[in-house]
Amino acid sequence: MAENYVKIALADDDPDDRLFFKEAFEELKIKSKVSTFNDGDTLMSYLNNENNEIPDLLFLDLNMPRKSGLECLVEIKSNDRFNDLAIAIYSTSATEEDIEYTFVKGANIYIKKPNDFNILKKTLSQVVTTNWQFANNGLNRDNFLLRL
Amino acid sequence: MTITFKFNYNKICNTLLEEKLKAHHIEFQSLGNGEVEILGKPSEEVLDIFYKEIHSYGIDVVENPKLILVQKIKDLIKDLIFNTDISTNVKTSVYLAEALNKNYSYLASIFSEITYTSIENYIILQKIEYAKTLIIKENLTLTEIAHKLNYSSVAHLSRQFKNTTGITPSAFERIILMRKKEHNHPL
C-alpha cells in the first residue's frame, strides 16, 4: 500500500489560486503529483474517461463556470468508481449552512482558502497527512470529516 | 429493515488469512500479532498469487523492518485505547518503550518518518475515530464516551474532537444522520 506519491487534483477557475496550490504542494514533505483543471466540466470529462487514473484526493472550488463544485461533488458521489476518492471543498467563504450541506452531500473536507501562503502550506499539509492516515491506517472513511 | 453489525477486526483478519493460506495449500503455523510461519517451501508463483489475492482484502506483507516496528507501535496503541484492562496510570511513552524494549525518541522518530504524523497525533486521531464510532453506532452520550476513553472531562473530549476535525461532536452526529437520511431517500 505504501505508494511513493499522493495523486492530487484541483478544479479551480482562478489561475492564481491554481498556481499557489501547485507551489504549496512542491514544498510539502509528502511527495505528490498535482493535476489542475480550469473548471468543473473539464474535471468531469477527465474523471469520466475510464482510461484516466483516479486521484487520491480531489480539491473542488465551489464557484466555477459551466459546472460548479457542488454539481461535480454530487456527480462523483453517485458513481461507485469513485468510492475511494476523498473530496475536499476549497472555497473562499461560505455560510455555516453551506459548509454543512457540502458535508451532507459527501464532501470529506472543507477548507476556507487562506490568503497567506504559509498558512496555505500548513493547511494543505494537514489535509494530506490526515487523508493519508485514513487511506493507510484502516480508519472508516465514512466518518472522515475535516474542516479547516 | 436496518441491521447493525459489530466487528472483531483482529478475528476477521486472522480468520481470513488462515482460510486463504489453506485455500492456496500453503502450510503454516500462526504466531499471533499478524505473524505467520510458513512451514513448507511454496513456490514464488504460489506466494505471488496469494499476496495479490490478500491485497484485495487490504492485507499486505510487511518487509521493511521500520514498517514492522511501526505496525507493532500501532498495535500497542490500539490495545491501550480499546482494551480498558491495561492500567491507565502508565505513560504511553513509557509503555511503548518498555513493551518494545527501545528508546522512546527512537520509536517516535521512526514512527513519524513512516506515517507522516507523530505518535501523540496518531493516538489522538485513533481516539477521536473511536469516539465517532461510539457516537454513531452505540448511541453513547459524550459523558459516557469521555469516561470510556479516559478523558478527564466531557469538555476535554469536545475540545480535542473540535481541534482534530474542525467540527463539534454534535455537528458531526447531525451531518452523518442527514447523510443517512439522504442516502435512503434520495431527492
TrEMBL record, chain A:
SUPFAM superfamilies per the UniProt record, alphabetical: CheY-like
Pfam families the UniProt entry points to: Response_reg
Gene Ontology biological process terms, A to Z: phosphorelay signal transduction system
Record PTM 4-aspartylphosphate, positions in chain: 61
InterPro entries per UniProt: CheY-like_superfamily (IPR011006), Sig_transdc_resp-reg_receiver (IPR001789), TCS_response_regulator (IPR052893)
Keyword terms: Phosphoprotein
Keyword Phosphoprotein: yes
Response regulatory domain: residues covered: 7-128
Domain of life: Bacteria
The protein, known as: Response regulator
Automatic annotation (TrEMBL), chain B:
The UniProt record lists the keyword DNA-binding: yes
Domain HTH araC/xylS-type: from-to ranges: 71-175
Keywords, alphabetical: DNA-binding, Transcription, Transcription regulation
Superkingdom of the source species: Bacteria
Keyword Signal carried by entry: no
Single Gene Ontology MF annotation: DNA-binding transcription factor activity
PANTHER family: ARAC-FAMILY TRANSCRIPTIONAL REGULATOR (PTHR43280), HTH-TYPE TRANSCRIPTIONAL ACTIVATOR RHAS (PTHR43280:SF28)
Designated name of the protein: Helix-turn-helix domain-containing protein
Species per Swiss-Prot/TrEMBL record: Winogradskyella ouciana
Lineage: Bacteria, Pseudomonadati, Bacteroidota, Flavobacteriia, Flavobacteriales
